[in-house]
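Regression test attached.
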Amino acid sequence: MNRQLSQRFAFGLLWSAASATIIILAIIVMFIMVQGLPYVNLAFLTGGPIAQGREGGILPAILGTFALGALSLIIAVPLGVGAAVFLTEYTRPSPLTTIMRFGTDSLAGVPSIIFGLFGFIFFVTRLNLGWSLLAGGLTIALMVLPTLIRTAEEAIRAVPVAYREVSYGLGASRWQMVRTVVLPNALPGIVTGIILSFGRAVGETAAVIFTAGTALNIPTSVLSPTRTMAVHFYILAVEGISLPKAYATGAVLIATILVINVVANLLITRGVARAVRR
Amino acid sequence: MSDFKIQIERFGYAYGNETALRNITLNVRRNSILAIFGPARGGKTTLLRSINRLTDIGEPGTHSGRILLDGQDIYAPGLDVASLRRRVGMVFALPVALPMSILDNVAYGQRLRGVRSPSRIQDLVQQSLEAAALWDEVRDRLDAPATSLSGGQQQRLSIARVLALEPEVILLDEPTAALDPISTAKIEEALVTLKRQYTIIIAPHNVQQAGRVADDTAFFLMGECIEAGPASQLFTVPRDQRTEDYITGRFG
Amino acid sequence: MKERLIGFLLFMSALVSIASLAVITFFIFEAGLPLIFRVGIGNFLQNSIWQPSGKTPQFGIAAMILGSVWVTLGAIMIGVPLGLAVAIFSAELAPPWLAAVIRPVLQLLAGIPSVIYGFIGLTILAPVVRAAFGGPGLSVVTAALILGIMILPSIVSISEDALRAVPRAYRDGALAVGATQWQTIWRVLVPAARSGIVASIILGMGRALGETMAVIMMLGNALQVPRSPLDSATTLTSNIGLELAYASGQHREALFATGVVLFVLIMILNLLANVFTGRLVLWRSRAPSLSTMRTLWRNRVPASDRRSS
């Protein structure tokens, strides 16, 4: 067969695959937005639900989503950044770091329903936290830990070795060096990881529904049960409560994810630009 | 008190099986400039890094023998490495401005020690920048990012940063390797002034530089100190054929 | 002193990720294993009757295992060719501006919540499948198509990294002996990146196998052994997701037992993927004992730096 012809055929397929990917994303986003945005208005965003969400707004779900995301990050960020600092600055590659990396990788591969099962049996039942923001936040914290560790590690490794030498050379202890040189310069990368983790918390359902519950009230403490937007969307859609409200919730959800990704990307590009200027 | 600020006694250093320094014995006089010169990979950098124990970070290695600072072994167990590094400052081959303001760069070492007083910091920064011949160029923009300085300025900033530590010894590893002739001249001038207060060890950029600044010299070849002595003697009547070959440009 | 305390705290936070993996494993197994032993592993895995609350309850997850297998393989059949094509395209063909579009597109595909995917499958795809092929619409084929897209980002990112890691010389060498660009890609680059590509497929399988909410929404949740791709079915995950909220007693135990099976399968896939990327060198050497861990901890920094502060 003609070599040029087969190349053109293959390249044609590759181009179609790439275009298909873009088109699929466009379809998903457009579909939800077109169907949902007409129902999104101020009352929807700032009002409480009526009749299980058949009428009214989604304020409790919005608040619940952000509270859960924030709580899980408060728990996970110190652990994740701490682990990354330890793995990069306090050890040399060794069997210990191999195990830790394997643990992190494996944790990243654990499906969210397993986190849901674990959170349910451990945080909700065993620790008796009940369906609550805290149980959900702890569960999501474990879930996003691998992402945080990996992004923070990459950001830390990108800090020039020369900075470390200068800092040590001027009499810095290890922690002083980390605090004054490594962390400030790795910050954009670390923040990117934090934002992406927040995105996972926002989009998660399986792990949240069995740990934070489905209560449609504005959470008043970390022990209140809550319902996130993703869970609300799921319940509206699957239980056929209200399709328009489901679309509208989906639109808000997608808009949130879009904003999160755009912000993360801006930070990444800015970080790269800064690295190039040096 | 001994005339020697630093005494290096049968010092060796190896990275795994690779020997970087072998059996070095060398004395450094107080308030003098010692130039360690020789071809690349001769062990100059390793020796400098051993003197303030920067060899502890980076690729792991092992040492043998002793290095005495004012008669005290710097590898003695229990020694505070951070305070050693404050007494023995290091300037690297490539200028490195930490990504913070000029003032913060110079004040960095003192702040690590817990010095907070703004007036004390201000005084130190000015003195150090003056001594490094940089003050006049940056006095109006101490809050500007240090990365905005030129390479030559950044290297003088590196020197000022070390001076601000109020060290006793300054190590310079080819400090002008990346610089133009004018910046090089400024730094060399500054060094000659600085030796009144400090003991300086420099791995010069080339033999000519060693001749311009050094009081004493040592010729290093493949991890060994071939010959050491006053610059006037070593450059005019070297005892070892290899030293002469290198100085006259027959190899290297 | 402060230095040591901070070092210790950092060490502890690094331990949390493995410790949590261990704790998760322990609690899932503790809650699920007793039931597996009571009904017998063989019975649990091979019996296709699931009647958790009958007078004589039956706990067989064979139908769900088959459902998971069908859906996962289907997702791989969609996601792997598409993902590999996109990876090759981004690594080798894409003009920079298009590569700059595809990267955030994939990132966003990865970020879209699975309930949205499930909803798209439920409202757009299922009716199309029903109209075109008959059957209930909420079926293996619907779920597989959507899951294939959901696993796309993982497959692309790992395969693309593997392709980009192939040394420049391979490419130049092949082109220099007169191969076309496509021949170079297909005969040289793809084989050279093979292990990374295989790892991406395995991890993609793991993601498809573990997906829950989207599957619940698209698969019809019929407790039956699927006979055709147009049948609806239940998977290991969707059954847990559907029943956990109200299950109690033995029934809840059985759901955790299902979780045990899922967990073991996922861990096997993780291990395989690690073996293929060569990251798990550990298994060729010996696993460190507690005492070596202690030594490692003591030697984690050069002794000199620990004394300072």
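Expected vs. actual: identical. Chain C touches chain A through 101 residues (CB under 8 Å).
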